[in-house]
Amino acid sequence: MEMLSNFVVPFLEPRLLGLVALGTFAGIYVGAIPGLTVTMATALLLSLTYSWEMLDALAMIMGVYTGGVYGGARSAMLLNIPGAPASVATTFDGYPLAKRGEAGLGLGLATVMSVTGGLIGTMFLVFFAPLIADFALAFSHRDYFLLALMGLMLLGALSGGSFLKALFVAFLGVNIGLVGLDTITGTPRFTYGTLALAQGINIVVAILGLFGFSEVLMQLANRRKSEVVAQVGRLFPPLRLVVRLLPLVVRTSVIGVFVGALPGVGGEIAALLGYDHAKRTVKQPSRPFGEGAFEGIAAPESANNACIGGALVPMLTLGIPGDAVTAVIIGALVIHGLNPGPTLMINTPELFYVVAGSVFLAHLMLLVFGFLGIEFFRRLVTVPPGYLLPGITLLTVIGAYAINNDVTDVVWSFGFGVIGFLLRINRVPVAPMVLGIILGPLLDESFRGALIAANNDPGTFLLGFVSSPVSLVLSTVILLTVLANLGVFKALRRTGGG
Amino acid sequence: MILRRVSLSLLFVAISVFLLLSSLAIDTKGAAFAVSPRFVPFGLSIVMMGLALRALFQDFRSPDGPAGLDGPAWRSILGFGAVVAGYLALMGTVNFHLLTFGFLMAAFFYLGVRSLPRMALVAASLVASEYLIFEYAFHVRFP
Amino acid sequence: MNDRKRFVGWLGRAGACLLVAAGIGGAAQAADYPERDISAVIPFSPGGGTDTVARAIANLAEQELGRSIIIQNKPGATGATATEYVHQQPADGYTLLMAAENQNLYRTTGLSQLSFHDFEPILLAAEAYPLIVVQNDARWKTISELLGEIDKSPKSLKVMNTGPVGISGVVTAMLGKSFNLVPYKGEGLGLAGLLGGHVDAAIVSMGAARQYVETGKLKVLAVVANEKVAKFPDWPVLGKERPEYQKYLPWGPYYGVYVKKGTPQPVVAKLQAAFKKAWSTDKFQKFLEANSIFPLGLSGEAALKYQNRWESVTNWLLFEVKAASDPSAFGIPKI
After folding, report:
1. What's the mean pLDDT in C134-153?
2. Whole domain around residue C215: which residue ranges?
3. What is the pLDDT of residues A25-41, one digit of tens each?
4. Residues in chain A with pLDDT < 70?
5. Within this chain, do residues C144 and C244 fall inside the same structural domain, yes or no?
6. Within a domain: residue C159?
7. C87 inside 8 A of chain A by CB
8. ipTM of the complex
9. Min distance A171 CA to chain B CA atoms (Å)
10. Whether A443 and B40 lie within 8 Å, measured CB to CB
């Protein structure tokens, strides 16, 4: 009972209610602007709220977190530029949908599904936090490696024309993700003796180039052919559609919660796995995947918002961050003199429920603000290219610069833009490269970590895949998926080369 | 014609050779081969070379390549690229907000917008929002 | 006549002004400093140890300085990027480097030619002590039992490692045993590895592990220090259990505030005063205590002495395990 009363505190306290609302509203716009990340916004709040009451600061941060994760979907759908890595999967079907003149419906659907996913995630946080924490702790390097492999299997879905080239591009992405100092030995890789490369290539910079600037170049190339999308369509998704998607969304939300709870992986991988799951399990999508399927929007959007509840589990129960944003929130707790860890739940139980309550509330706010903002946002698709293309270019420039206050990053994002353009005019998709950059470090570190943990002994290493329950389950899932898709893979290879 | 058809896969072959050489230069710090920092990049670049060669072979035999771009499309891209390159090159020498305003005006004009007051209004409001959001709220210090 | 007088007077004043500008220009500059907001560069991502300490002290110091301290995170290459960046800025006291100990290791690990010798310490705020922890029901009762077991069968024990130059890398180098070092991407992830039973032991900072010990999930085999920690008298210390390690101790990561070398002395003095005052506030001391970080409060000669010792001990230790190149090539003496 006491727990419940703490949970509703943010609903009843006008000050907290206002802060959550303000945070959610601001978060949507921070998330929608590529280059401004939720991590940056939370870090900024950390300084601003230094002299505030702890709960006030947390309420606002939770709002920004929720709004920010959702906001990324907007630029992903309307401009084909994911506002954050967690929205990469949303571009796959979101942008084609907007191109069909149904941008309004896409945004409306994303809002409803984000809210659904987020609420499911919060429920898991409230009722199963200790269980989920145990699950997260059971994950070893070997299991992270298997998770990365599962992510790579999405390639089959993204390959477009040529599977060969898509695979090549994805592996190139993995190598790009490995540029910089190796986290295990500190050895520089692909740095050619420069410090600029030693700091690695930021994923957001790569995304801004590969999606943003390459899109500008593509539109320039097709300028005489392309016509402006004049209509944005209806806004509210019909109830029947929502009900039909609900079973899928529940499943992808659960995926989101558990991936979010794993320390070190976050929304970007949750959304990709959610998309992959939708693609594999939905046999008759509303439209083919990649051409504006509603399933392809509902799955990643619910997964990445469900991820919030998951990421808060290790943070609140163990004091271990589930992703980059929760790392900053831990910093906020530390600065306010609360040492986050297992005693946080014992010494300050109200904190847990107020945080959970704020996230829940923020998602309800999202439902309101989400629909309010759409009117304005969806008009972006109707902006004539003469204004839109310079605008996107500017967004790429300042977004890339803002990540690290570094002009080198701007140059990089343009380099990626040219690469993306060259690939796209040759009908090779850019998404596999982003997938590679996201999964590359995870793949490399977890594989080597698992082998080191097995004392470099291949026998022990392989045995682990069947002797550990988590690994056994994950390997079985992968094996079954590969077997089920063998026919598909063959067909793809036959048509490879276009 | 053949060269156009295989240009991308030729580029892929070149990239994989370059990556292979670069990965051989990675210091292993005495770690065993499979756990060394070299292992994944090295292994992948070998696989990539195989993929690239196979793609080259396929592209060589396939009758129709990608459509390609015509002259005006290339001109339009190179022109816009030049405007952007100018913007990047001048970064750090002129006041960033003025430079951005100038870039936007030039880019709008290049893309065929001719209404000067509207151009100035849109450019000014973009610069203003850039200033308010990035510089004022997020403390980003532009060059 | 009157005009002439005025002219002479004007000349005199102008001369005086010139004198002021030339002779005691530094003082005038310091009197005005800070005329605008100061930027503080944190070489790591938001949320980490360096970040939280830096934010906590910067927030208090800006109240002393009367100007805002704008925080910028510039992570990458274990802080070398930020270090190079601050070094490229003018030495005017308007760009602070909120660093940790890593600059001591850039030269021998080949990351950068810069080291803390290129910067002026404003304040070394605090240091952390490493803990050697195992699961509560582990078979080792003392650190000697653990070290004895690894002596008998090398490579048999898995120890969480956050990188060759991190806390665990340096302490395992100090212990000089052949552990199987299992890599983790940070203290938090590594602790999760230990809690999940994927490694046998972890070496982490006290603040990160303390709560797990207090809640009975982990137990402390040793605090890596020579003397008992007053707050935790039950925890054994490495220097007492195994005296052969005393020469390396105390050793731990530390947090400090720096400006580029060549910053006018009055500006440095002003910053030192402001940060020292921020450091001594109740609020900051309580923050340190809550997170089990130990106050240092060193500046000037004392700070340099502390850093020189740290640089020497750590670089030579890492050189022994081949994680760094020969420190004598950079004039780092062995003490």
Report:
1. 93
2. 130-248
3. 999 988 988 888 888 88
4. 1-3, 224-233, 487-498
5. yes
6. yes
7. no
8. 0.93
9. 7
10. yes
